[in-house]
UniProtKB/TrEMBL annotation, chain A:
<keyword id="KW-1133">Transmembrane helix</keyword>
<keyword id="KW-0812">Transmembrane</keyword>
<dbReference type="Pfam" id="PF00528">
    <property type="entry name" value="BPD_transp_1"/>
</dbReference>
<feature type="transmembrane region" description="Helical">
    <location>
        <begin position="192"/>
        <end position="219"/>
    </location>
</feature>
<comment type="similarity">
    <text>Belongs to the binding-protein-dependent transport system permease family.</text>
</comment>
<dbReference type="InterPro" id="IPR000515">
    <property type="entry name" value="MetI-like"/>
</dbReference>
<dbReference type="InterPro" id="IPR035906">
    <property type="entry name" value="MetI-like_sf"/>
</dbReference>
<feature type="transmembrane region" description="Helical">
    <location>
        <begin position="246"/>
        <end position="267"/>
    </location>
</feature>
<keyword id="KW-1003">Cell membrane</keyword>
Automatic annotation (TrEMBL), chain B:
<keyword id="KW-0547">Nucleotide-binding</keyword>
<feature type="domain" description="ABC transporter">
    <location>
        <begin position="8"/>
        <end position="237"/>
    </location>
</feature>
<dbReference type="InterPro" id="IPR003439">
    <property type="entry name" value="ABC_transporter-like_ATP-bd"/>
</dbReference>
<keyword id="KW-0813">Transport</keyword>
<keyword id="KW-0067">ATP-binding</keyword>
<dbReference type="GO" id="GO:0005524">
    <property type="term" value="F:ATP binding"/>
</dbReference>
<dbReference type="InterPro" id="IPR003593">
    <property type="entry name" value="AAA+_ATPase"/>
</dbReference>
<dbReference type="Pfam" id="PF00005">
    <property type="entry name" value="ABC_tran"/>
</dbReference>
<dbReference type="InterPro" id="IPR027417">
    <property type="entry name" value="P-loop_NTPase"/>
</dbReference>
């Protein structure tokens, strides 16, 4: 199969690569480009104050965030004041929920009894819509970063914890027998057998946690007591009826969400190469 | 360790899953450097016996002694080759790292572990596969990897649980000869469980025939074939033909007399 395809690929490599790249970009971005053009046309015709044309949103985004000096990567001070704290809180919240979720998930998944006892509680905690708990966290924690990070953790930890426990529980018994007959230490079993075999499920949990933490990041910043961040920017713009800024934040959040997801997928693809390849061979 | 007492001694071994009796009153000795095959009809408790020896299950009665020490939990110096190689090897590690992994607890450095793994792979004819992943290899080659992993571990005894049950006939013969070579070249003590009558005679210095309902030893037959064996000549030798017929009669005839296998064919985990 590969031998037959090889000469063909080699002959047209340079041209083929470029054509493939162009085709990929076209297929992926063309619908979006068409949508933006249509939106631009429609908003110009309508000339509504509530729906500024995309060109104006982009202009505002540039002015607000991306017109800084080159040695600051073109980021403005305003970007540092609103984007940076939001991303910092999100990163911290996601990091803590990943570590805690994996550690607790490992412990739960290894103990049949603990999981059986705690499962109803976990399922209950998981289905509580996380935003409803934000008012509780406002009371419990200091306003600002502490409360916001707590909100992110409480929403993002569940998919990671439950997926890890599930992945750990379904480790192949033959692999565990093998580890046992070779008398591998508990640490080696966790590192070389349990975590790798749970990784596909952990990544699935991480993808969910990522989008949840973005939602909770913005939501927790919408509340009173916040002094910076993208959510604060939103409420601020709303109170001043500054619609281009409002739309700018929305577009930026969309771009950030897309970017983070793409990065996570790339990492997953790299880490789980064996998983995809082994499955392809098996089928 | 004197050779008379034997490396592995099983006395009065019995096991039951709940009220279902799987093994009863087993006595078996394996001496240093011996290759003993265990053969029996399905449902005779072959796998349960092997798991008792490996320390993966605690037998309800009797004693298993390895190298003079009673087995309580998984013993040191024992390596197991499972039938299901594709599930026993770790798909996220290269072949070399799979083989080197059990050596971690020996405290040797990473470079030394890898060198040992590569040597073990070479001894099973897999010089070029070290940096491949298990799923890139054929079934027979994967089983060679698990044999290499067991050899690199330098066990005093090798347990094999129907190791060639999932490979094609040609590969099976090659792997059988690999086991004989390992047995001869390294003087490895091997206990191999199989359901294949020909295989039990071809490989064994001694064949232990099991009966079922409950699983017990029916007969032990010494194999007086020369140590050097080959697939064509040995299988045509009169002694092989005679033994094979006798083992066949013991397995099949016994199976008919003892009734069909009961529900617990595979040990419950």
């Amino acid at each position: 199969m590969t031998t037959a395809a090889l000469p063909l690929r080699r002959r047209s490599r340079a041209g083929g690569l470029l054509a493939g790249l162009v085709r990929g970009v076209l297929h992926r971005w063309l619908p979006l480009a068409i949508l933006v053009v249509c939106w631009e046309a429609a908003t110009r015709v309508a000339d509504s104050a509530f729906f500024p044309p995309p060109s104006e949103i982009v202009k505002r985004m540039r002015e607000m965030w991306f017109s800084g000096p080159a040695d600051h990567l073109f980021l403005t001070t305003k970007a540092g004041d609103s984007i940076a704290p939001s991303l910092g809180r999100m990163a911290l919240g996601l990091l803590l929920s990943t570590v805690a979720g994996i550690v607790l998930g490992l412990a739960l998944g290894r103990s049949e009894k603990a999981l059986a006892y705690l499962n109803p509680v976990l399922q209950f905690a998981r289905v509580i819509p996380p935003p409803t708990l934000v008012p509780v966290f406002i009371v419990l924690f200091d306003l600002g970063t502490q409360m916001q990070v707590a909100s992110i953790i409480f929403s993002a930890i569940w998919p990671i914890l439950l997926n890890t426990a599930d992945g750990v529980r379904t480790v192949d018994p033959v692999q565990m027998d093998t580890a046992e007959t070779f008398r591998m230490s508990a640490a080696d079993r966790i590192r070389f057998i349990i975590i790798p075999s749970a990784l596909p499920k952990i990544f699935a949990g991480l993808r969910l946690a990522l989008s949840l933490s973005l939602i909770l990041m913005v939501f927790s910043e919408l509340l009173p007591g916040t002094s910076d961040g993208l959510g604060f920017e939103l409420t601020n713009a709303q109170s001043q009826s500054d619609l281009p800024t409002l739309w700018s934040v929305i577009v930026l959040l969309g771009i950030l969400g897309y970017l983070f997801n793409t990065i996570l997928l790339a990492v997953e693809r790299r880490v789980l190469t064996w998983h995809r390849a082994a499955r392809k061979v098996a089928s | 360790m004197d050779k008379v007492t034997g490396m592995l001694e099983i006395t009065g071994l019995g096991h039951a899953y709940g009220s279902h009796r799987v093994l009863q009153g087993m006595d078996l000795k394996v001496s240093q450097g011996e290759l003993v095959t265990i053969v029996g009809p399905s449902g005779c408790g072959k796998s349960t016996l092997l798991r008792c020896i490996a320390g993966l299950i605690r037998p309800s009665e009797g004693k298993v002694v390895l190298n003079g020490t009673p087995i309580d939990g998984v013993p040191d110096g024992l390596a197991v080759v499972f039938q299901d190689y594709s599930r026993s090897l770790l798909p996220w590690l290269t072949v070399r790292d799979n083989v080197a992994l059990p050596l971690r607890r020996r405290g040797t450095g990473k470079a030394e572990r890898r060198a040992q793994a590569v040597r073990a792979l070479a001894s099973v004819g897999l010089d070029d596969a070290a940096s491949k992943y298990p799923w890139q290899l054929s079934g027979g080659m994967q089983q060679r990897v698990s044999i290499a992993r067991a050899l690199a571990y330098r066990p005093s005894m090798l347990l094999m649980d129907e190791p060639f049950g999932s490979v094609d006939a040609q590969t099976r013969e090659d792997l059988e000869d690999l086991v004989l070579q390992v047995h001869r070249a390294e003087g490895m003590t091997i206990l191999l469980v199989t359901h294949d009558i020909d295989e039990s005679v071809y490989l064994g210095d001694r064949v232990v025939v099991l009966a079922r309902n409950p699983g017990r030893i029916r007969e032990e037959l010494p194999v007086s074939l020369p140590a050097a064996r080959d697939q064509i000549g040995t299988r045509a030798a009169p002694e092989f033909v005679r033994l094979r017929a006798e083992v066949g009669r013991l397995v099949r005839g016994g199976a008919a007399k003892d009734g069909p296998p009961t529900v617990h064919e595979k040990p419950v985990r």
